[in-house]
Description:
46% of the residues lie in helices and 13% in strands. The chain contains 20 helices and 12 strands. It has helices at residues 36-40, 42-52, 68-73, 108-116, 146-153, 161-175, 191-206, 211-217, 234-244, 285-308, 314-318, 321-336, 346-357, 366-370, 373-390, 396-409, 419-425, 430-438, 441-444, 451-460, and strands at 27-32, 58-63, 80-86, 89-95, 98-103, 122-125, 180-184, 218-219, 223-226, 252-254, 259-263, 279-281. The strands form 3 sheets. It has a 6-stranded parallel beta sheet with strand order 5-2-1-6-7-8, with helices on both faces. It binds 1,4-dihydronicotinamide adenine dinucleotide (NAI) and D-mannonic acid (CS2). Residues 187, 226-228, 295-296, 299, 368-369, 376 line the site of D-mannonic acid.
Amino acid sequence: MRLNSSSLKSLPADVRRSGYDASARGIGIVHLGIGAFHRAHQAVYFDDLMAKAAGDWRILGVSLRSAGVRDQLVPQDGLYTLVERDGAEERLRIISSIADVLVAPEDPQAVIDAIAAPSTHIVSLTITEKGYCHDPASGEINWAHADIVHDLANLATPKSAIGYLAAGLKQRMASGAGPITLMSCDNLPHNGAVLNAVLTAFVAKAAPELSDWLAANTSFPATMVDRIVPATTDADIARLEARLGMADQGMVKAEPFTQWVIEDDFAGPRPAFEDVGAQMVADVRPFELAKLRMLNGSHSTIAYLGLFYGHETVDQAMDDPRVAGVVDALMVEAAYSLPIVPGLDPEHYAEALKGRFRNAALQHRLSQIAMDGSQKLPQRLLGTIADLNASGRDPRAAATGVAAWMRHFSGPFVNDPLSDTLKAAANDNPEQLISNAMAIEPVFGPLGQQPWLRDLLIAVMPR
Ligand code: NAI
Ligand code: CS2
């Protein structure tokens, strides 16, 4: 038996169901990048919203790459289990907010139609840092990106999220479907501004007749998103099937903690996010800096140092004093680099983060965090290094994370959109490796010209 709207009634009584009739609600959201994080974070908030009040806030998920999630969810009527794990505790909840899933390469026009539909008020995205086709150091569009080159010449059959947004909004303008909000939920600093800059630049070249409409009819709220959501494994699926008495191919697992800070800047209608625990603010920046530098900077450092010392998961690496010691120091460095964050006590936040990292039930694989380092390090570690140096402090711990990344990409397993560039920079000689890596402009930008950083990296390079 498989989880679906018919078998729902056969689930064990302790499995929490959604408190509303999903079949009676319409689609209001198109989400690009229907991955594990969206299903364990935003989709849960929308499930709560529809249980709490009327409103057509179901989600049309879109994968721009593969059919995997569509094949997991569509046979299940969009239903899946959120498995919250914390140590020995486990809580199960069925999420009903996803109405359907499209695979863009199979039917590009269907995705364009969905973005243009008058009932669509928000397009949200979790397409990974690399999905924005930008240079991480500058935040600007990368015109040489293969998908951008393709989409400039083939806007009716795009490959990039940026191309799909341009094509969908062009059709939306033509049909008079009204304003729409484009909401990035990726781990990027000023993610709304990055999306705005890349899309505006692309539209100016690909569809200049759309530029004025885009400026007048869209908004790009920044968001800070936080929930540790490790990739689902076959063992997770088998364990859940034994627990439910039926198969759920679309399950996701996550820690209990969740946080969503959203800039209150919506061009069209929005649901009452504040009624389901999200924070609506005027300025997301302090919240995102704290999270990207203290959580994600530590995560990447744990990943690269942990892999260097032979560990496989975050909790294992945190049990290694050679890793935990650097994390302790990095938390202090990152906290020092922050502005005042409303309601945040950096010391308490640091302790809470370390407790979340030690949640062995998640089995969060270091290799998952280690991927796409070229797209992550600028906002996670290089910003901390630059700010601390500017204030006369020594960013040794943050530099250790960067040096460990250099060791990582010199090894055999590198999963990164800049993998060719990284392989060319790889070197067993630490001094040469550091010189080669610092010359990678899309990652280091002007920081790559600083002799003090080179000297520091040589001093802290894991050996
Ligand atoms: P995932 O691997 O489950 O899903 C990634 C999604 O991005 C897939 O739908 C994939 O098709 C799409 N994608 C990948 N490369 C793309 C590209 N170049 N263009 C368009 N779409 C592309 O990963 P997951 O866990 O859903 O994470 C996705 C993003 O969510 C992360 O990169 C991060 O920005 C954000 N996030 C993830 C958290 C987590 O703990 N997993 C927590 C906080 C934020
Ligand atoms: C992780 C993040 O994979 C990674 O890069 O650092 O996905 C992390 O789990 C989330 O940002 C936590 O909110």
